[in-house]
Amino acid sequence: MKIVYDPAHVSHYPTKEIDKGRFIENPEKPERINQIKDALIMKGFDNFVPPSKFPINYIYLVHDEEYVSWLKAKCESLSEDEEYITEVFGYDKCFDTGTPIKRNTFEVAKRAVDAALTAARLIDSNNVVYALIRPPGHHATRGYCGGYCYFNNAAICAMYFLKRGAERVAILDLDFHHGNGTQEIFYDTDMVYYISIHGDPKYFYPWITGRESEVGEGPGEGFNLNLPLPPKADWSEYSAALAYAVNEIRDYYPDVLIVSLGFDTHKDDPVGDFLLTDQDYSKMAKQLSKLKIPMLVIQEGGYNPQANAASAVNFFSALE
Ligand code: OKP
Ligand code: ZN
């Protein structure tokens, strides 16, 4: 299995965020994916591929030019270690206060897109490629950053596959949080089927999307599926939702499956609230392998570096 990884991610290190009116430590840290990389190497995975550069136009397949220019200009206005916490919704093209911007945020987020696209380009008719990247992407909408996400890596890759001639792309979002950005971007199309299993937004971020009633609209009606689970969901509840999702993907028969993979579903994750164990990630991968559809796995969340590492090793060992 090829793994696309860019060590430059370490220069993006948000330190804080505002949560319920208070500053808290920001958990979206370099160690999250450094530990995954180290553990995969220890396990014998050695097919690491560096990212190529892609033109900025790929980002415009998904994001508004106004948002992209705002982010770029904001970064350029900041000094070396300055951390800008967005707070004026609308003026700031951000929908929360948990997504700090630093001088090199644009550059590093763009490099994550490049790594994801490099992985997408390596997809052929029957393989798996893993984009081991950060910052994550699934909360980023067409016009706003949010939830530690700046550019929607998975959505940009879906557009890449459609441009390259794919007729149908499925995105399975297994991060603990609902991918409001990915949902929004493909809400009105039947060419991308977005399916997400996540903590019920009645209790968890992003609060305002992720309900079962959100089924898509226009030609996209029936091509958006939310499977919210209650707090403390364990493998028995999770695997039932996953089995349902896998059946839906099989029936849709996409040319490629993009998996937005977050390890914040692990019982030891400090942000998520499910109870999956290390072993459950092997079972998760086995369920997905049954599909026999080319699979681009894109890293999203997961905030306990050790749990991330154990989960990733089990997931990718079971896939191969
Ligand atoms: C990003 B991803 C909780 C603060 C909430 C936002 C969480 C974003 C998760 N104390 N901050 O989907 O993993
Ligand atoms: Zn998450």
TrEMBL record:
Q: Name one GO biological process term.
A: epigenetic regulation of gene expression
Output the Gene3D superfamilies linked to this UniProt entry: Histone deacetylase domain
Cite the entry's keywords alphabetically: Hydrolase, Metal-binding, Zinc
Instruction: Read off the InterPro entries from this record.
Output: HDACs (IPR000286), His_deacetylse_dom (IPR023801), His_deacetylse_dom_sf (IPR037138), Ureohydrolase_dom_sf (IPR023696)
Entry keyword Hydrolase: yes
What Pfam families would the database entry show?
Hist_deacetyl (PF00850)
Question: What is the required cofactor set for this protein?
Answer: Zn(2+)
Every Histone deacetylase domain range? 27-318
**GO molecular function terms listed in the Swiss-Prot or TrEMBL record:** histone deacetylase activity; hydrolase activity; metal ion binding
Q: Which PANTHER family match?
A: HISTONE DEACETYLASE 8, HISTONE DEACETYLASE HDAC1-RELATED
Q: Which family does it belong to?
A: Belongs to the histone deacetylase family.
Q: Per its record, how is this protein called by name?
A: Histone deacetylase superfamily
